Every structure is written in structure tokens, then in C-alpha cells.
Amino acid sequence: MGPDAYRTAGLAETLEALGHAVADHGNIRPLDIGELTPPNPVLKNYKAYVAWTRALHAKAAELGEGPVVPIYLGGDHALAAGTVSGQAKAAAELGRPLFVLWLDAHSDFHTLDSTGSGNLHGTPLAFLCGLPGFDDLLGAPFEHTLKPENVEILGVRSIDDAERKLLLDHGVGVSDMRRVDEAGIHNLLKPFLDRVKAANGLLHVSLDVDFLDPSIAPAVGTTVPGGATFREAHLVMEMLHDSGLVTSLDLVELNPFLDERGKTARLMVELTGSLFGRRVFDRPTRSF
């Protein structure tokens, strides 16, 4: 229902009003993968995770080599295991490095062994950065892993001890909300964008609803107080647009059941509009 909520909130119409051609590929279906035993009994919905990852990987690998900017709508942030891995495969085919900006309250860097909750939306970045134990996801070892130093997690404010050690050991870029408060969003994001540009990289942005403060975006099952403000979030999107570097986007973790008259879906659509070129003077005054 998350993808349909974005459609209802006018995502396609917002992009078309900015002069973009939009093609809706509809809702993807998971692959039939047969029987599968979880490597860790605590894991929840493991077979579904694998089935969705394989389907999304194939779709993203196809779209990533074309003259389009795919927007992947969800849904659980576990979908990034498929979307980003597919984009990484396409980037390798194009001979360019893939960078990832992870806008999220959580770092999602657990392995299938380190997770205590078994919630698989906490594992995609570990898989994408090549940590072991994930061969089931694509049915074979993932060949096009991200360089951890090419990943920047921005706005994080919930990391447990196991993830913290893994992040430090692998050199992933992490800017928590204290750094945001002290240095400012612009001063943290610009050096990362400069590195992407210098490397002639492709940039995938993965935007989780809980990157935003729950006071403005309540429609998420994992709310963490102290998130990005309306102004900070739009600044990030406008900087991304100005950079001209973004080649693919995830919009994830929208739960319409938890929304307040659709305000979270509308805000996410407005942020997408900013990423695709809408300026503050172009934005109509409205109540969120």
C-alpha cells in the first residue's frame, strides 16, 4: 500500500509538472524461489526477503543501464537489498562506481547473524557492502559490492552496539543528528557530493520516512524522535538536484495506516519534487 499511497499523493503529476516524462511500471511481484531455510532462526520473513530481493535486483539491473532515473517505491527498507544491488550491477556494466546516500534514522548494517530482532530491514547495507552470510539473496555471491567508504549514512540516531562496531570496522561514512546539529546539513553533504563528482560516480539515494522527524512524518512503524526538519530535508533534496549526480532513488517505509490524512505521503512527494527541480518559489503554500 505504500507505493499506492505515493501514487495517490500525486508523485507522477508532481514530476510531470516539472517537465519530466514518467512511466509507471506497476507493482513488482516476488519471485517463486521454492523452499528455503533461514540461516538464523530469529530471522523474520526470510523467504519473502530473498524472493523480493531477487525480483528487485533483476528490475534494477535492467533499469540502471537505461536513460532513466528509477524511483523505487516501498515498503520495507529491505527492498534496498534488491534495488541497490541491481543499480550496482548496472554501474559496473557502465564502468562507473556507485555511491549511496542513506537517509535514515537507522544504519541498517546488521548481518544475518548479528541481528537480535530478526527484522530484515536492518540488514540491507551490510549485504550491499559485502559482509558475509548473504549468498541466498541472489542465489550466488554478490559480485558488485559497494565500497563502504562510498556509502554515507545521514541523519542516523539509532545504532546498537553490534552495528556500531561493524560500521567502524568497515569505514562507512556516518553522520548522526549530533553532527547535523553541530556542523549543519550542507557542510556534511557537500564533501560527499564532491567525492561522487570527482570519481565520476553514480549516486543512489535511499530515503526512509524515518529520516524525517515524526512530528512532520508520522507514517512509519519505526519512529525515532529528533529527525530532520522540513527545512533540512528540502535542503538535502535541493542540494542533490543542484549536484546533478542522482541516478536512482528509493522512497521507503511509508505505512499509510499510520498517516494523518496523507500528510507524510504528500511530504515525501514534495521532497521528491525538490530533488527533481522544484524550487521554494515554485512550491504552493499549503498545510501539511
TrEMBL record:
InterPro entries: Arginase, Ureohydrolase, Ureohydrolase_dom_sf, Ureohydrolase_Mn_BS. Pathway: Nitrogen metabolism; urea cycle; L-ornithine and urea from L-arginine: step 1/1. GO terms for molecular function: arginase activity. Its EC number is 3.5.3.1. It catalyses: L-arginine + H2O = urea + L-ornithine. Binds 2 manganese ions per subunit. Its cofactor is Mn(2+). It is an enzyme of class 3 (hydrolase). Keywords: Arginine metabolism, Hydrolase, Manganese, Metal-binding. Belongs to the arginase family. PANTHER family: ARGINASE (PTHR43782:SF3). This is Arginase.
